[in-house]
Amino acid sequence: MKAPLVYARQTLATARLTLEPLAPEHAAPMFEGFADPALYTWLDVAPPPDAEDLRERFTRIARPYAPNGELWLNWAVRRNEGARYVGLMEATLRPDRVGYLAYFVFVPYARQGIAREACAAVIDHLWRAYDAVELRADMDFRNLPSRLVVESLGFVRRKHNKATRMRGLPSVDYRYRLRRPDLRRPVEDEPEAPDD
Fold first, then answer.
1. Is residue 26 situated within a structural domain?
2. Is 123 exposed, middle or buried (0-12, 13-18, 19+ CB in 10 A)?
3. What CATH number has the domain bearing residue 171?
4. Each residue of 144-183: pLDDT tens digit?
5. Predicted local distance difference test score (pLDDT) of residue 174
6. Among 75, 94, 24, 78, residue whose Cα is nearest residue 52
7. In a domain, 193, yes or no
């Protein structure tokens, strides 16, 4: 039996980025990036109406202990050169050590390798600090840039995809998984359905 999840607050660093544990105070300097409607092309959510709304969201998700025993891990991503915030990394870790990865890279900084670099830092942290056994990522099947990011990190698309809706219209989320390299036994998963 695994030990209970204990939050290990840690700033992560890469060659170009600093990932700071998310705090409500990040809302003001990150608002401009989150207010850009182009950030939500493949998400069925609206931009925050103002910095206070974003601050309220950050206040909720910056609390690491979720009511159901999960850990919510979030980092504000800052580019070292110019010290500007360029995105957000999110990871949800279940008690069975299976995690879910999501990220935002603000539009002016897209396609510069930031998502891959930040994701790699978070993945390494989840393996080492939390003994995660598997990570998963879901995304709209049309979101080619995000699909390329996770595939470049070794995630494999699962056979079972998830029917979703995007702005009221039917869509499909591709589901990806990455198993920790040193594990020999596969993690139990929900039954997989054939691709449609």
1. yes
2. buried
3. 3.40.630.30
4. 999 999 999 999 999 878 888 887 888 899 999 999 988 7
5. 94
6. 24
7. no
Outline where DSSP puts E strands in the chain: 12-13, 17-21, 71-79, 84-93, 98-105, 134-140, 156-157, 162-166, 169-179
SS3 116: helix
> Sign of torsion, CA 18 99 162 181?
positive
Total residue count of the chain as it appears in this document: 196
In a domain, 77, yes or no: yes
Structure tokens at 93: 């870790």
Q: Maximum CA pair distance of the chain?
A: 48
180: tokens are 């920790």
What is the domain range of residue 154? 12-179
Strands (E), 44-83: 71-79
Within a domain: 124: yes
Distance separating the N- and C-terminal Cα atoms of the chain: 37
Q: Tell me how far apart the alpha carbons of residues 19 and 137 are, in angstroms, rounded to a whole number.
A: 19
Residues of the chain with pLDDT under 50: 1, 184, 191-196
Q: Give me the number of domains the chain comprises.
A: 1
Buried b (16+ CB within 10 A) or exposed e, 154-171: ebebbeebeeeeeeeeeb
